[in-house]
Amino acid sequence: MNYEEIMSKRIQEVKPSGIRRFFDILEEMKDAISLGIGEPDFVTPWHIRDAGIYSLEKGFTKYTGNAGMAELRREIAAYLSRRFDLQYDFASQIVVTVGGSEAIDLSLRCLLNPGDEVIVPVPSFVCYGPLASMAGGTPVYVELKAENEFRLTPEQLRAAITPRTKVLVLPFPSNPTGGIMGREDLEAIADVLRGTDIMVLSDEIYAELTYGQHHVSMANLPDMYDRTIVVNGFSKSHAMTGWRMGYVCGPAPIIGQLLKLHQFGIMSAPTVSQYAAIEAMRNGDKDIEHMRDEYDGRRRYLVEGLRRIGLPCFEPKGAFYVFPDIRPTGLSSDDFCERFLMEEKVAVISGSAFGAGGEGFVRCCYATSMKDIAEALTRMDNFLTNLKKKQAREQA
Predict the structure, then answer these.
(1) How many angstroms separate the CA atoms of 173 and 204, rounded?
(2) Across 125-148, average pLDDT
(3) Closest alpha carbon to 365 in 314, 299, 324, 321
(4) Over the stretch 197-219, which tens digit does the pLDDT of each residue have?
(5) pLDDT of residue 1
(6) Which parts of the chain are beta strand (E)?
(7) Helix, strand, or coil here: 17?
């Protein structure tokens, strides 16, 4: 059978993630250090795990309502109001999803007709463009610049808009750069959007991980609430990646249609995870503060260490990534990562895996111990020293 003819052309044309191959190599190595995987190194706090365990002991193992348990949606609404001054009706404006990724997928499939364009700032997380394509849309990539600390500028947005533009993805705080968009940055973007019918898909999964300032959502801005879909979840803020808990909030007419996709494709998010998530929303604020303080110390240590050994990088104000410039080495991002992994047994991720603008940079994740960060910096210093010696010999 000719499977290429049988399978969807749209799906076949989507390239697999460029991140995975580094982890495949890493799994075969002993004594390797990973600054690659974008996952908290913290275990889910005990009181949250206990809530999940207790739900199993009580036999709460049946389906919940499609949109998620009403109790959980109430707690999400209260959390968003308390933490970010965002007001959503639990009954009509919130759907609990299987992680933030499902929320992004549902949002794009709900909004897009064939040929509609989705503006995706890059470098950014790898899912937006492929999910837009699989929903029948056309991703339009906008290359962010290091000199702007990888912020989207109004000039770049204005140049990317066409009559077919339907959605702008705002992935801030950013994976992989750690860049953020402050209120003034968002206001400038909002000025471009006013008077259009362009929707904003705001991925705020790292909203709790900002340093030195408070996260502002596009939905906080005047006239932007009704055109913004907010995606968030528990993976980064509460160290709950494996629980697969996310949620999506937005205008009730859109959320109502989005719920239909969720009903037919998923039914409902995992029940045990929803009980754990209720506890996280209700009593997890101190956990967030503790983890953010820990990340902040690692962030400053890693930035200082990278600069000390000769790799320029701006100070990231969000998420748990640093995005150093490796162009002074003369290596491509892929070559740098592969050689660093093979020669020093340290994994970082090629910036080119995150789209245009990422070439010449690598992503270093500091969601790991200070001991491993310190050792990784020592090994990177050795790698750069040996690389310079080899390049000098070749030029002699």
Answers:
(1) 7
(2) 95
(3) 321
(4) 999 999 999 999 999 999 999 99
(5) 87
(6) 33-34, 94-97, 117-122, 138-143, 165-170, 199-203, 228-233, 246-249, 321-322, 346-347, 349-350, 362-365
(7) coil
3-state SS assignment for residue 183? helix
* SS3 per-residue string spanning 374-391: HHHHHHHHHHHHHHHHHH
Those residues whose C-beta lies under 8 Å from the C-beta of residue 295, and which sit 6 or more positions away, are 209, 211, 320, 366, 367
Q: Which residues of 347-382 are buried (b: 16+ CB within 10 A; e: fewer)?
A: bbbbbbbbbebbbbbbbbbbbbeeebbebbbebbbe
322, 306 in Cβ contact below 8 A? yes
Tokens of residue 70, six digits: 């009403």
User: Which positions ≥6 away from 104 have C-beta within 8 Å?
Assistant: 127, 128, 131, 201, 203, 231
Q: Could you tell me which of 183, 180, 203 has the C-alpha nearest to residue 125?
A: 203
Please state the pTM of the whole predicted model: 0.94
Helix or strand run (H / E) with residue 272: helix 271-283
Q: How confident is the model at residue 333 (pLDDT cuts 50, 70, 90)?
A: very high
Instruction: Please calculate the CA angle 226-179-379 and round it to the nearest 5 degrees.
Output: 150
User: Crossing angle of helices 271-283/285-308, nearest 10°?
Assistant: 80
User: How distant is the alpha carbon of residue 83 from its chain centre?
Assistant: 19
For residues 76 and 294, what is the distance between their CA atoms, to the nearest angstrom? 25
